[in-house]
Amino acid sequence: MRVVWDGEEVEAREGQTVAGVLMGLGVRSWRTTRGTGRPRGLFCGIGACFDCLVKVNGVPDVRACQRFVADGDDIRPQSGAELPS
Amino acid sequence: MSPIESADVVVVGAGIVGAACAEALSAAGRRVLVVDRGAPAGATTASGEGNVLLSDKAPGPELRLALASRRLWPQLLETLRAELGEDLADVEWESKGGLVVALHEDSIGPLRILTEAQREAGVDVQDLGQGAACAMEPHLTRAVTAAAHYPEDAQVQPVLAATALLAAVRARGGEVRGGTEARGLVVQGGRVAGVRIGGDAVPCGAVVNACGPWAGHFSVAAGAPIEILPRRGMVLVTAPLPRVVGRKVYAADYVAAVASGDVDLRVSPVVESTATGTVLIGSSRQRVGFDESLEVEVLRRLARSAVRLFPVLKDVPVMRAYGGFRPYTPDHLPVIGEDPRMPGLWHAGGHEGAGIGLAPGTARMLADLMDRRRPEVDPVPFRVARPALMAEVRT
Questions:
Q1: What SUPFAM superfamilies does this protein map onto (chain B) (predicted)?
Q2: Who among A34, A50, A59 is closest to B315 (CB)?
């Protein structure tokens, strides 16, 4: 299947999490903190820490490590606190 | 840890009410020992939203206590800052104001009757129409029919507040012991002579029952039972958001939900953000004993009712949910005073969902009564010996 990462189409496999796809692309960071804009990515990997938040199909605060990709997903980096668009 | 030798007063329960009472008693020069069977500020105090509210109270004894407490909170925080320094005394106090909104034509009348009565009782409240309410809270639903703004409503981080109060108690020579259960009283000549902690008896002149929802249990162990029951509530928490909600915003039917005695589930939307940006979504009320199980239906109704107030929340993920128990009294009034059946035993509790806000006034009243001074607020409605607390007591 194909998903979109930050505006570019990329390959993804059924059963992969968003974090899995991004790590596979070599992307280590996909969010910045809301205070000082520091980079964040995968930390605990099991859904507990809420560090790997990312925007999927306009919805922010999605845990990249818990969300399985679906064909055509529009995945975008998140900067700080965002509202759904 | 060294054994606890003795104290003037032992406060049982290190939640916000116990902490505030201990602070007031230590300020009056007493050596205070605070014990809690769990961690200080770890139960009901950790499960609330930190409400310091006038808006949800109809005129009467509780509103008088709330008005006194609202005046005391800033003074208390000033004292803590002076004694502990800025860092320890930073308890995220926000005088953010409250906005009560009516969502139906037929809730406008009751809201206006309430605000008129509150104004006469000394509450600062402004009646607003839909336009003014939405100008104040831009994300608020346009379905609002009327609103009332309460500039004095405030919020505090309750765990930080209780911890700061306990730090002041320690700084004045008092002691705070978590993981320490008081099992009953030592009685001599018909009055309190001490408290039983583990296998030890700690001599003291007075014991304050500040056990929150468990105050009924301790009162039974102390041989002077009062009726205090748990009323379950649940809260949803979002991830930190950009400013969506400025004030504490809730539907006008919340006031009726607070005042009701229903055993069954009542849900009334209360939405507010914290200093870190997370949005807290309440409120539910249920009398299910101390059942801690998570009910998805309650969470679903909370979410649905919050989206009705703030449609923008529809696609906002919930980060976590938690629940707690409010200390409920059958006549909806706190209990503050000495137990006539057991001189030296004092009760301070039964505040239901208002304990954070009412803690300073409660503590001041207790300290005044203990010093045989006349409290600023009439203590009679809060006395221990009243029918609602004693009538249904299981002995």
A1: FAD-linked reductases, C-terminal domain (SSF54373), FAD/NAD(P)-binding domain (SSF51905)
A2: A59
Nearest to B242 among A53, A62, A82 (CB): A82
Rounded alpha-carbon distances, angstroms, from residue B43 to A62, B13, B165, B210, B213: 30, 10, 16, 12, 9
Q: What is the pTM of this model?
A: 0.92
The fold of the B98-151+229-328 domain, in CATH, is D-Amino Acid Oxidase; Chain A, domain 2 (3.30.9)
Quick: pLDDT tens for B270-295. 999 988 899 999 989 999 999 988 88
**B contact residues 17-46, partner A, Cβ 8 Å cutoff:** none
At residue B142 the predicted structure's pLDDT band, cuts being 50, 70 and 90, is very high
- Closest to B240 (Cβ–Cβ): which among A34, A58, A62? A34
Q: What is the ipTM of this complex?
A: 0.82
From the candidate CATH numbers 3.40.50.1820, 3.40.630.30, 3.50.50.60, 3.90.550.10, the one assigned to the domain spanning B9-66+158-228+332-382: 3.50.50.60
DSSP state of A18: H
Closest by CA to B83, choosing from B166, B145, B146, B205, is B166
Tokens (6 digits) for B163: 């911890």
- Using DSSP's 3-state secondary structure scheme, residue B296 falls into helix
Instruction: Name the residue among A84, A78, A74, A67 with its Cα closest to residue A29.
Output: A78
Q: Is residue B109 within 8 Å of residue B61, measured between CB atoms? A: no
Quick one: what percent of chain B has pLDDT higher than 90?
Answer: 86
Chain A contact probe: residue of B139, B236, B241 with most A CBs at under 10 A: B241
pLDDT tens sequence across B56-70: 999 999 999 999 999
d(CA B43, CA B32): 21
What one-letter code names the amino acid at B173? G
What type of residue is B242?
P
- What residues does B34 pair with on adjacent strands? B11, B176
Cα separation, B158 vs A18, whole angstroms: 37
Domain boundaries, chain B: 9-66+158-228+332-382, 98-151+229-328
- Residue partners of B78: CB distance under 8 A and separation at least 6: none
Cα angle B352-B104-B268, degrees, rounded to a multiple of 5:
25
Strand pairing report for B248-251 and B98-102: parallel
- How far apart, in whole angstroms, are the C-alpha atoms of residue B59 and residue B101? 19
Amino acid in the structure at residue B282: G
- Asked whether the predicted pLDDT for residue B394 surpasses 80, the reply is no
The tokens for B345 are 């035993």
Residue B315 with chain A: CB contacts under 8 Å:
58-59, 84
